[in-house]
Amino acid sequence: xxxxxxxxxxxxxxxxxxxxxxxxxxxxxxxxxxxxxxxxxxxxxxxxxxxxxxxxxxxxxxxxxxxxxxxxxxxxxxxxxxxxxxxxxxxxxxxxxxxxxxxxxxxxxxxxxxxxxxxxxxxxxxxxxxxxxxxxxxxxxxxxxxx
Length: 147
Hints:
The chain has five helices and two strands. The chain is mainly alpha-helical. The protein has two domains: 1-91, no CATH class; 99-147, no CATH class. Helix 1 packs across helix 3 (75-89). The longest helix has 18 residues, at 104-121.
């Protein structure tokens, strides 16, 4: 795969800092590439569905606790920012695919369907091997099987 993309701003990480940074840059007219290593977005902010304090998260914060109750009042704002980010950064060339993460089987099924569809869109074909190269490959196979 060849990457030849360019942008005014490249944001690394689609968490609580990266998403707003991407939106702000886009709102100011910049072209943006948002890079996330995980299969979903949100970083520590998504540990309890976006209802954690945005100061980060750790293993102890992954379970619902009293602090989550305080954050619930911001749920509509979180969801609005999330939708704005997806709308502002999803493109035909690099679309977002939002999938549920609470059921691994369903998540894997949806992700595999997205991947299969993307591969089909590439319209790949097996390379054609001419008779001379086919003969050469057969000889290489013969020599390798001797050792």
